[in-house]
Each structure stands twice: as C-alpha cells, then as structure tokens.
Amino acid sequence: MSTLQAEALTEGKKEKAARFPIIDTDVHERMVSIEDLLPYIKEPFLSYMKHWTGWGELKYTHPIGGSRLDSLLPSGNVPGSDYGVLKEQLLDKYDIDYAILTGLFYPATMEAQFELAAELASAYNEWYVRNWLEKDDRFLGSIHVAPQMPETAVREIEKWGDHPKMVQVLLPIGTAPLGDPYYHKIYEAAQRKNLVIGMHQGNSVTTGFGQPRYYVEWHTILSQAFMGMAVNLILNGVFDKYPGTRVAMIEGGFTWVPSLMWRMDHNYKSLRSEVPWVKRLPSEYIKEHFRFSTQPIEDPNPQHMLRMVEMMESDELLMFSTDYPHWDFDSPTRSLPTTFSAELKRKIFYDNAKNFYRLPDSPKAAR
Amino acid sequence: MNRMVVCGSEEMAPGQKRAVQVGTRSVVLVRLGSGEYCALMNACPHQGAPLSDGELTGTTLPSTVGEYVYGKDDQVLRCPWHRWEFDVTSGQALFNDRRACVKRYEVTVEEGNVVIHY
C-alpha cells in the first residue's frame, strides 16, 4: 500500500467519524443495461424497447422499428451495415446501376462541440470510403462535413472532392439555417469541385412547434424543414452568389414543391426589396437548382400524383430513391404510380439523377 | 391616337403623383425628380388596386448578398395593396416577370400643358 493510499484511507476513517450525521442528496445508482427494466414494462411499450437506441439525437424510440424486418442481421449489427446483405437485397435484386451512399451518421447536426463534429465527419469519410465506397463499382459517395466549422468543411471537400466516386457534399438538415452567409464558403467549394449539395433530414430536425409528441407526427411533418431550407437557400442568395450550386433534397417529400413555389413567388413579388440579391422569381431557382428524391412517395389517387408532377412544371425534378434498408423503403418495381408514363419513369429512375449528378452512362445503359 | 391635356406643366412638383381621368380610363401621372412626366394605367395588374394610392419611392437595386443599394428614388410606384413595385419609366415590375407590367402612356409637355396620348 502506497503512502498516499494509506493516507486516503485514514482520511476516510476520519470522515466516517465526523460528528455530523450526513444526508447526501445526490447519489447515482445505475442499471447494467436497459434490459434490466424489461420485466417491468408493459405492452405496447415493451415492443418499443426492441428498438431502443437510448436518448440520442432522435428524440423518439421507433414504435415499429426503423428498418425492414428482412434487413435485420443475424449478428445483431445495425441493418445496412453488411455489404453482402445490401448487395443481395438491393443492388443485385433490383439491378441498381448506381447507388448514392448517404450514410446515417451525421455529426453535421451536432449542436455543440463543433471541433468534435468535424473530426467525426472526417473520420467517417476515411472509414466509409475504404469499407463501402470502394467496395462496389455501383456505389457513389457523399462527402461528410461539419458545416458548423465552415473552413474545416471546405478543407474536407478539397480533400475528397477529386475522388472519382464522390458526387456530393452531404449537409444534413438539423436546426441550422444553412443558407446563412456563415455557410457560404461551403457552397463555393462544392461548386468549385463540381459537387451536388445533398440535404437529408438529420435526427435532430424539428417542426414549426419544436418536437411533436409522437414519432408519426414528426415523420409526417419533417418536410417542413426541407421547405424551410429551400426558402432559406434561395432567399439568402446562395444561387445568385454561386450559380453552379445544385441541391438534392433527399427524403423530404416533393408533393409540397408546387405549393412552395407558388407561395414563395407570391411573397417575393411583394417583398423583393428586402432581398435585392435575389434576381429571379424563386420558383425559377427551384426548377434550375433543386432536385427531389421520391421516397417516401405518398400513395394518393394516382391521377392526383400525376397532376402534382404536372404542377411542378417540369418532369426533371424527381430522382428515384429507395431509402434502403429503412422501414419506409420504396420498391423500384412497385412504388411509382401507374399513371406515370414510361418516359416519365425513365427520367425519374435514371435520366434526372444522371444529368443532375453529371454521371457517365452506366455500363448497362450504355449498352 | 387621342390626346388630352391633364394639367399645367408646373402644377405638380417633382416627386408627386396624381390620378387623372383620360377618356374612360384612370391614369396615374407621375412627375419624376428630374421634372419629366410618366403616366401609367392606374390599376395594378395583380388585383386592380389604384396605383395612384400607392407610394412613390425608391427601392433596393439588384445587389450582392448582404448588400443594400438604394436607388430609383421617386421612380418606383409601389402598389397600395400588396406593394408590388413598378418602375414608372417602363411600367415593368421590379421583380423579374415580364408579365407583370403596367400599360404606359406617352406624356408630352406642350405650351405649358401636360398632355397624355392614349
């Protein structure tokens, strides 16, 4: 026993013998794991606990599980973490020509410790390029950055921007208004490297009244954040300043696009003087600079869905996506409405993304 | 083409506007800071509000992000309802939509009178 330890013990004895009785009002006992609670939890919440991921960024425990049940891995590892299974269930099964990887690890939406966020994004790039991107010719990549640190994000874009498989910079939507001039150098770098900006919701995204009480509410209404971001980017002048900027809105829906174009034009006509750097009608920026992924495509009267595309006044704004392996996956063979013509489907499945991401023809399409 | 004297050439000070009846139509007559006159149909193409009730003003010109450049002083007529802005020298809206345009009338000053041609 060292002298120090001995002294500490002696000290302890002294404290035990203190003359005052003591009430400690803050002592933390802990469970070994959440499983300790399972015997005490009743249905339907016991089923929720199969999907418990702790109090992370996502404020909800998924009520039905966040992934397709057939994507669950025997190892217990996270669905989507096994290349062989993904290849079989998605790439080979549906004969996918290109699959753009978007990950689901988004330090970009961390609201504190931005240096750590930048380090994590950088580490993720290193890891996934080696372990995923370069594993299959069909994979294309997104550069993960921490927009909270714009200069660092620019360096990350410069580091990976010339990688032949990188097609976009991923800026997940959290609570930050990414059209703000604070972030503009990121768009400059993306434009310089000829990369699309991919925007996918992050788990921390909120709605107009913050965090709604149920997951189903949140998942329904998170498209608000995409609308807000489109408005924010356009009216803060990103496209006037960097005309080469292209933004892919991923998983945020698209049936709101006609309404947003109308509403933004309507307001702009009255309030243009507040944002004089915006030189054209906002709807024109949407049509020229934005594309929208299809999943999760809603399932209304198929005629109505066709009309919705007509109201977008362009058949070039939609790009197909599955969202594999998530619970709301859209099948390449069953999700687009029957009213969509073969020509429209061809554009949604292939041409629009090929043109927007400026991809070479896939080997199959070139045949 | 018809012509009509609507007022004396010094009745209006620069920066003023007024509605004048020209035949069957109402026209908004504007005197620019330079002293020249412009005339537009007195109805906004949006929802028909009388532009003569609006504000004759300047506005922010196209600029770079975060920069405000004020100009076209007393050359912009702002509709009283939704505040669409029109350049009175062209009738064109300040936002970039060629369809948003107010009909312009030729105005001349002849022998001390302001004459609108219609």
UniProtKB/TrEMBL annotation, chain A:
Superkingdom of origin organism: Bacteria
One GO process term, biological-process aspect: secondary metabolic process
Key words, A-Z: Hydrolase, Lyase
Cellular component terms (Gene Ontology): cytoplasm
A GO molecular-function descriptor: hydrolase activity
Signal peptide positions on this chain: none
Transmembrane segments: none
Chain ranges of the Amidohydrolase-related domain: 77-359
Stored SUPFAM superfamilies: Metallo-dependent hydrolases
Entries under PANTHER family matching the protein: 2-AMINO-3-CARBOXYLMUCONATE-6-SEMIALDEHYDE DECARBOXYLASE, ISO-OROTATE DECARBOXYLASE (EUROFUNG)
Protein name (Swiss-Prot/TrEMBL): Amidohydrolase
Lineage: Bacteria, Bacillati, Bacillota, Bacilli, Bacillales
Automatic annotation (TrEMBL), chain B:
CDD domains: Rieske
Keywords linked to the UniProt accession: 2Fe-2S, Iron, Iron-sulfur, Metal-binding
SUPFAM superfamilies in the record: ISP domain
UniProt GO MF annotations: 2 iron, 2 sulfur cluster binding; metal ion binding; monooxygenase activity; oxidoreductase activity, acting on paired donors, with incorporation or reduction of molecular oxygen
Domain of life: Bacteria
Entries under InterPro entries matching the protein: Rieske_2Fe-2S, Rieske_2Fe-2S_sf
Domain (Rieske) ranges: 4-116
Pfam families in the record: Rieske
Annotated protein name in UniProt: Rieske (2Fe-2S) protein
Species for this entry: Cohnella thailandensis
